[in-house]
Each structure stands twice: as structure tokens, then as C-alpha cells.
Amino acid sequence: MIKTERLLHLKSSRGRKVRVVREHYLRERVPCYSALCQADCDNDGKVLPGDLTHYVIPDVGIVLDFLEILEFREIQGIIFTQTACQAVQHNKGRRQYNRLRNLLKDPRHDCVLFVNEFQKYSYCPREKGESQEKWQTRCVYSAAVWFYNHLAGLKDIVMVTDDSEAVAQYSSLNSGVYVISMQEYLHSFWSDVNAAHELYSSIVQAVQERESEGSEREYQEHLPPEVLEAGIKCGRYMQGILSVNKHRAQQEALVTTQGFSNKSTGLSCDVLVLGVKNRNRAVHGDSVVVELLPHSEWRGRTTALTEAQGEERSMEDQNNQPMPTGRVVGILQRNWRDYVVTFPTRETQTQSRNSQKILTVPWDHRIPKIRISTQQADTLQDHRVVVRIDSWDSTSLYPNGHSVRVLGRAGELETEVQTILIENCISVPPFSEAQLREMPVVSPERPWNPDPEQVTTRRDLRQTHLVFSIDPKGCEDVDDTLSVSRLPKGGLELGVHIADVTHFVKEGSLTDQEARARATTYYLADRRYDMLPEVLSANLCSLLGGVDRYAMSVLWELDSASLEVRSVWFGRTLIRSSYQLHYELAQALLNGEDATVPELNQLNPEEQSQRLAELTQALETLTHVARHLRAQRDRGGALELEGVEVRAQLDSEKNITALVPRQPLEVHETVAECMIFANHWVARKIQESFPHQALLRHHPPPRQEFFSQLQESARARGFTIDTRSNKSLADSLEQAVDPQDPVVNRLLRMMATQAMSQAMYFSTGAVPADQYYHYGLALDRYTHFTSPIRRYADVIVHRLLMAALDLDRGLSSTLASNRELEETAQHINNRNRAAQHAQRLSTELFQCLFFRERDPESDPSCVSDAVIYAIRDNGLLVFVPQYGVKGPVYLRSREGEVLTFGADGHCEWSSGTVKKHSDHITTSSLSGSTTFRLFQHITVRISVQSNRCHADSLNLEVIQNAPHETSNPDLVPTQSKVQLIQEVHRQAEESLQKASVKPKLSREERQYCQSKQPNLYSLLEEIRELSLMDEEASAKKLCATTA
């Protein structure tokens, strides 16, 4: 090791330039991370393969400007130098630096880090008078030469730089080390990666336009970081996350402060930011610093309904109480992502004569227009394009960006589906060949059988336990089974057996990395994207009847009288499910009805009767235990809130043929209680074993102010809702029933659901013990253990449980630290939110596509019953039970006219006034007055409000101040939702056939290897899982929907 010194030019906290001399140590042995290493380097971790044609080392400028291209998996053998990484950290900020670090960590990418500035023979001290850019280029070239010599000339090294002087200077110095430009590199080595070439052209244009920006300032400059930090500490400034109001994107945004309390005013709340000038180039999601305006300039938020096309009320015309109002003075962290934009038509394009600068309109209303430089403006009219923001200088009204790829023409089904995925940062590429090679090979010729070694180490339950599953009809991916029996010495044994996914998905494997990145299975209205390859999710990890399967089991010994737990056993097992029941069959057996169990058809009558009696007895015992478990949680305050209650009918190919109302069965609650019981006990076990490194799930109590709408609405109907605790809330909702209108209680429970905070995963070392509590389920500790096929959190919990069992046996295990586990928990929480949002947007998309081709004036399916559940200043919020749609109904138009009804029931718009009360709203005009009350049934007409640049939306228009004549609030039509999906697909396929093009959906199905339509399990179980509710809490009514 050789000691030397480095001279650094730094800035002090006061902004002064400081010269600092630091010790710098050089080593002869630094890992090269190449499989061709001839010097026996200590290459732990990811290693570059030796069968590539070359290794490539990008220059600092290439890494700064073209990192997106280097992220392509097709481009292999990349060596990032320490010099380039430090330049990214200093010039691009923490977010871009973390992006580069994650790229280096990802085993799916063939790239490594070489610490060239600590290698004795590659280190280059900076010469006197040498510019930083020239020195960085010389360092990278020196690293390239060192690599070529270190590998004894076995591999050609390509250095990529866009510095033409460097290409001329270094290209002929060393044979085997080639110095070329980025464009030449792509054309020479990756000519078939068209997406990389298109992205390169887009970035080059964006860089050129950025360099030619004008100097006239449009916004205030952001304050320096040291000033922001000092201002936050002294209380002058506040920091938080900017959230733009999607309905008033140009006028209103909130900064959600992070535990800030102003020292002078004692405030601890959100800050309102009005107008784009006060937003000062901050984009939705950015971490910003705000300064409060004088109290005289504070304003309140608008509460009137607003239409997408812009019915806006002046910020001065408010009745709301003023709230803290401020302006953005600095940005701590950008949260830019990929955005989907639409290119304007030629008539609306704004561009100069000498360039192709196009103002594109983002699909997300909250994002400002983005200026793109392109030569394809005419070609891309009315197309959806993925873009990235590069910069937003104070001299530019809009941010500058570059296009990444074209999705397709706006309005086409596949384009809109891909838009939803990208807007929610959902990446679901097909599983790679390397990932699939990690999976067991299963075929009719080579069926899977348990490993003899596993048979000896696992507890074998195949002959000793009656194991069965209860799932929706047609379910193929069965990840949980149950067992219950009476013990010889008295007492009961209850068992929950979960698919042992972790046996097949090893920690750190490529499949595990992909599962962690996805974090969940994504369900859209017409398809799903699995977290795990199909060979696991639908085969080896599906606990099907009559086949041997690996499982993780929890077995309780219960007192036969009190049903109290005497003991519990956790461990890996080998099971064979005897019966694969569906809910209706299990309920029929419990009710004593005649029912056919397929597994008993081949037996003689006597044996069939004996086995049927044994199964029925097990179901009755299971139901008895579940009732006791539910009663225990009810006493603690467990909630029952409103959830989706639908059941799918499948054809022989497992495709959905109809959706019908799901009949509430007690067996639903029985299965749910057993799953909740298992999750609770596993949570206890891993938390006790690892107090600071266990993954749990908590549900914080909701803020009381969120219950205001629920309480006001209930009061209008004569009910009182006590929200002081989960127990009092549950009791109040149970009593708030109108015998004449069951939809009232349903709406109240939906409002209670909306008031709930979201349940979140967390590491026990990051949260105080008194915050472990699960408000909805009324449990002190809770986690997710029962669905590892579809949730990565469950995979982590399985591994923690096995580590806890090893700890009991005196064995040690390597666990993630509290910090690492908390990062993973936050990642899973973010992915779950994205999945929920994507699912909701997908449903809205299909609703709009379904109604778009229908004439609202003549088609009876466009007229439906609606129930008023909220009153606003200029209209109503209604719920349409037939389609599960919520939306606004306007009583005052943008022109100031109001809606009234004559004596004959005919509605008309005329000049008048609207007067809002707590439980009703009245419109008055010369023709009379009309009153609308909370929970009143009215008739609405549904149409589609088209928007070329954004998502279409449904428009609800009241046509009669009375219930729809053919409506029945207790009955949802059985065909409406399935018609919605099937009709949209039919229309899309017909339009494609007319154009002599193969259907895009089939192509996507082949590309992504995903199901084209959801099976029963995806619709009933997965949609419910991705809501704010815990899947295990679903029963007759979903208990604790925010689990």
C-alpha cells in the first residue's frame, strides 16, 4: 500500500471555497471482477463473463448523459470506473447516483465497478493547469489500458467518449484498447438494438437544445443547499413532499410537511402553494423547501366540484378557512420518473422554424407540459410517447426532456394499458432465460417428485392428517390448505399449510431479485402479471389435490372446551391435499345438503359415505373454531367494512364468462379467520426471535378529522357514529342500518373505509413497539405469511420464520439488517400502492371503453340508479351500484346555469342559484326549486368525456330526481361487468382485423407470457388483496378492509 495525497476544492457551510489535502492510499491488488482474471484477484460478487467479444469502459461524459442507454440489458460487459461514479454523485445528485449504484448491484446486468483511483498502476494524479474534464478522461483511459494488460490481452477493451479530442489523442496509442464515440460504438456493436439508437438520438437532441437555452429568467433561482439547511434548522423554512391537485393542477398544490412545527406560529400542518410561479419548477412528488407567505396572503382550498375541462373557481372566491400558504424556495430531491405524453396535432404545435421543439402534454394532469426536441413531430401526432425530464432551468417556462420510446396511438386499448403500467412505474418484462433455468424442469415425461432428502427432513403429514383446500371455484394456484382433527389425548389440532415458495426461490437468486423488484402480482381488468414464473405459481407451489407438495405449516393444539392454545408448532412439511373444495361445495356440506365431492366419485358407496362423514365433521369443527377466533377479535374491536363482493363463472378453459353477486357464506369467514390466526402467530414468533429485524404489518389508527364526512352523513340519516376506538366504530356501524334501504349501511361502511389509514409493512427495529398494533384486525402483532405466490412480503416472512426455528435449534442465520429490511418494506409498500392505483385505473379504462361506443340518449345500459353520498358547493357525489362507479353530478354549469326539474319531471338548465346545506342542496330558478338529499336515489345518464391527451372519464348527468324505475339496490346485474371487458376486447379485435393486423393482445400475451384474461382466483382473491384490505380479513363482509 502506497500513501499519497489528494488536493480537493470544497465548499464550506457558508459557501466559501476551501482547499483540503487528504491522504490517499494506492494498492497493487484491486478486484477486477472479470472471469478472465490472470492475477487471482479477490473477485467476490458479480463477475463479468469471459465469453463476451469485448469489455466497454464509458467516459465520465457518457455516464452522465447516456446512463439510460447503458441500462439496456443487451449491452453487456460494462466497467464503470470510480472516477465516473463520483462524477455522477457530484453532478447529478443523489437520485441519479443511487440509480447507478442499483444498476451495479443488480445481478441481471453485466456491469461492475472498478475503483481505478485506488489502483497503483491506473491512478493518475491531476497535473497542474489540467481541466477536470481532461483529467477525468485521462483517468478512464488509464483504467482501460490497465484492464487490457491485467487480462494479458485476452479481451479487447473499448473506451467510449464523445470528446473528439480524446478520440484523436488516445485511439492509436495502444493496440487492443479502442477509443470511439458513443454513436460509433452503438453502430459497430449493437446495431440490432433499435431502441438504444432511438434513445441516443433523442438524448443528443435534448443535450443540444439545453446548451442553446436563452438567458431570460422565468422563475426565481433556487436557494443554495447550505442556505436551505440553515433555514430549516432555524424554522424559517419548511420541508416536505409536493402534491399537486390533479383537478386544479395549474392552481393548487400542497406541501405535506414532515413533522415540522413552526417556532413562531406554532403551526404543524400542510402548506398550500398557489399557482405555478410559487411552485417554482417543482414537480409533483419532489421533496421541496417552502417559505410561508405573510398571514394576509393565506388562502383556503377550493371545495367545489370541478370538471376535467376546467371549471375552476377563483382562489379569492372561497368560503373555506385560510390555511398556511407559501412558495417553493428550493428543491431537496427530484422525484422525476418516466412520463407518458401525447404529441399535439399540427394545428396546436408550438415550435420554432429552425428546430423541432414540441410542447408535449403529459397523461398525468399533475405534470407540466414537457418540451421535447424531435424530428418526428408529424409522425407522432396523436401518439402516446414515453419521455424523461432532463432539466428545468429558471430561464425556461417548461422542463426540457427527451423521448424514450413510442407506445402507440392514443385511444387504442393496448396503448392505454401500457400507459397505466408506465405511469405507475410498473415494469413487468418477460422472465429471462437465466431466471427460468433456475426453475425445476417439469413435463409429462419428467413429472416432479419430492426429493428423498427433503422427505427425511420434513414432517410428513401425508398419511396422518386430513388436509384440504377451500377456494373459489376453478382456482388453480392454491397457496393455502387447512387441517383439523381431534387428538387421542384430548383437544384439537388446527393446521394451516402454506406453499413453501422459499424452497424453490433461493435468496439472492435471479428469480428472487425479480420477485423483489415486482413485490406483488399485478392485476388489471383483463390480465395479470405474475410475481413468479408460472411453473411455480400454477404448478409446484400450488397445493393441488392428490399430489405431494412442500409446505410451511403452523399446527396448534387447542383445548377442546375453551379452544385456548396449548402449544404451537412451526416447520416445513410434506403434504398431500385430499380434497380441493370450492366455497359453495364446502358450505353445502356444512348445511347438510346433498353435494358431490369429485374425489369420492370412484369409491364404493360404503367407503364414500364414511369419507364424506369424516370430511363434513372436519368442516364443522373448523367452523366452530373460526367462530371462536372471530368472537375474540370482535371483543377487541375488529372492524367489518365494505368490500367488493363478486364471484366469477368460468368456462372449461378457465376463462370468465360472467360475474355474479357473491353470496355471503360462513365458510368465507371460516377460511379468513384461519389465515388471520396463522399470520398473527407467525408475527409473534418472528418478532420475539428478532425484535429488531422482523417484517410486520401495522395499521395505524385513522385521524379523527377523516371521519367528518362519515359522521355528518350518518347524522343526516339519524345515526350516530362513535369513532373514538375501533370497537366503538364497529358497534356504531353495526347499528347504522336502514331496513328500508340496505345501501345506506353499505355507503356508510364505504365512507369508513375511505377514512382509514393505509396498512403498511415495517421492520420492527424502525417502529416503537406501541405502534405495532393493527387497528382494523384488533391484533397486537400481524404480518403476511399465507400468500407467498403473490406477495414478496410473505416470502421474506417465510425466511424469517425458518431463521427463527434455526435459532431455537442453536443455529445462526444471516439476516438483513434493520435498515435493509426497512428499505425493502418501503419498496413493497410503494409497489403495493402502485398495484392498487393501476388496478383502479384499469377498471376506469374499461368502463370508459365500454360506454364510449354507446349512445347515451338511446342505449338503456347508459341509464342507471345512483345514490347521493356527499354534498358539494355546486353538485353531488353519487355512487352507481350497477357498475360500482363513483363520480360527481353537477347542479351548476360553468356558465352559471343551474339544474331544476319541472312538475312533469323534465330537467332543464336555466339561470338560478344553488344553496348548500349539511344534508341537502337546493337549486332555484324561475321554473321552481329542486332539492337533493343525502342517500336519496336519483336516475343518472352515463356518458364518456373524451380527452385526447389524458385518460377518458365518465360523465354522470342527473335526468330524474327519483330512483331509476327498473333499478333494485339489492341486486347488481350479473352481466354488466363481464360485458364491459368482453365488449371492449371484441371492439379492439374487430378494428385490428379490419386493418389486417394481428390482435395486439395476443402479441402481448406471447411477449409477456402472462394470462390474457384473469382466472377466478385473480378476480376474487387478488383484486381484494391489492385493495387497502387484508385478503385474510375478507368474509361475509370484509373485516378490517385496511389490513
- Helix and strand composition category: alpha+beta
Uncertain segments of ≥5 residues (pLDDT<50)?
Answer: 259-268, 308-319, 643-651, 653-661, 967-977, 994-1042
Per CATH, the architecture of one domain is 3-Layer(aba) Sandwich
How would you state the average pLDDT, rounded? 83
Compute the number of helices.
Answer: 25
Distance from first to last alpha carbon: 56 Å
Taken from the alpha-carbon principal axes, the silhouette is: globular
The CATH H-level superfamily of one domain is 5'-nuclease
Rg result: 32 Å
Give a quick account of the main beta sheet: strands, pairing sense, barrel closure.
7 strands, mixed
**CATH topology category name of one domain:** Rossmann fold
- Strand segment count: 39
Content of β-strand: 15-25%
Name of the level-1 CATH class of one domain: Alpha Beta
The percent of residues in helical segments reads 25-40%
Write up what this structure looks like.
Keywords: Cytoplasm, Exonuclease, Exosome, Hydrolase, Magnesium, Nuclease, RNA-binding. InterPro entries: Dis3_CSD2 (IPR041505), NA-bd_OB-fold (IPR012340), RNase_II/R (IPR001900), RNase_II/R_CS (IPR022966), RNR_Ribonuclease (IPR050180), Rrp44_CSD1 (IPR033771), RRP44_S1 (IPR033770). With 1043 residues, this protein is α+β, with helices and mostly antiparallel strands. The protein contains 25 helices and 39 strands. The strands form eleven sheets. It has a seven-stranded mixed β-sheet with strand order 18-25-24-21-20-19-26. It has a five-stranded antiparallel β-sheet with strand order 10-9-8-11-12. β32 (875-880) and β33 form a beta hairpin. The longest helix has 35 residues, at 818-852. It starts with a strand and ends in an 18-residue tail after the last helix.
